[in-house]
Amino acid sequence: MPAPLRRTWSPPGPYDLHRTLGVLGRGPGDPAFRVVDGAVRRASRTPQGPATLCVRARPGAGQVEAEAWGPGAEWMLDGLPALLGEGDDPAAFTPRHRLVHEARRRHPGVRLARTGLVLESLIPSILEQKVTADEAYRAWRLLLQRHGEPAPGPFERLRVMPDPRGWALIPSWEWHRAGVDHKRSATILRAVRVARRLEEAAAMDLPDALHRLQLVQGIGPWTAAEALQRSNGAPDAITVGDLHLPRIVGYALTGRRDGTDEQMLDLLAPYEGQRHRAARFILLSGRTLPRRAPRFPVGDIARL
């Protein structure tokens, strides 16, 4: 096996590797994302081909060390600072609520990761439309295990997602077996047909990037924001249309349980330009809505 390429990055201040990169994983058992012995392992399909990245923090040395394998290894390492949040500007954020101020004080090393890969974040976001997280994670896991490819490097359990043609060739019964209904699979197929145009959104300003993604039928504001939070590290890409987030934000900031999108946007208005970052700190605060109803049942269309 060829030796990996190596790179180091020195954070300019406090840095939390796991909370910064943890949002890129899609649930337990994500075949493209693992955390083992403190190291974050990530398999991606870059413009130069498949690649595996292994990142580990060395707090004593004040550095983050990375190794990469595969045809896309150099591309991954060139993008390492952006991935780790070098282009992010946490100093631009001013807390307007005591709870948000306290969450930022307790988590000073959280930055917004920027992968530069739109399809990689968009497809699992489409899978998460209108279903439970567990259903979406299962679908992502099964599709990568059956139709992805082994990731370059020494990590046998990692898989690289299919390329656009690979997604397009997945037969209808395989989508069904993974629990993906026709509406979501059709949206993914429409997206991969214009994959090159969608990838251009990684270099766009947020309004233009949101518009570009939503030109694809089946991709709305929720899905576009969820994808661009990761691909672009967009600090203002607040998720609207979510089942839980408005109620979490409303409860955390006002104590009310019945938050709506409109109320959430009103509460986050003082954070204009940084609303996604504000929501992340609210989620990190741990002040979550107490559960009253049973958990939403998990469906399985593969059994139909």
From TrEMBL:
Membrane-spanning residues: none
Descriptive protein name: 3-methyladenine DNA glycosylase
Keywords: DNA damage, DNA repair
Example GO BP: base-excision repair, AP site formation
PANTHER family for this protein: DNA GLYCOSYLASE, DNA-3-METHYLADENINE GLYCOSYLASE
Gene Ontology CC terms, in alphabetical order: cytoplasm; protein-DNA complex
Source taxon at top rank: Bacteria
Molecular function as annotated in GO: alkylated DNA binding; DNA-3-methyladenine glycosylase activity; DNA-7-methylguanine glycosylase activity
Gene3D superfamilies noted in UniProt: Hypothetical protein, domain 2 (1.10.340.30)
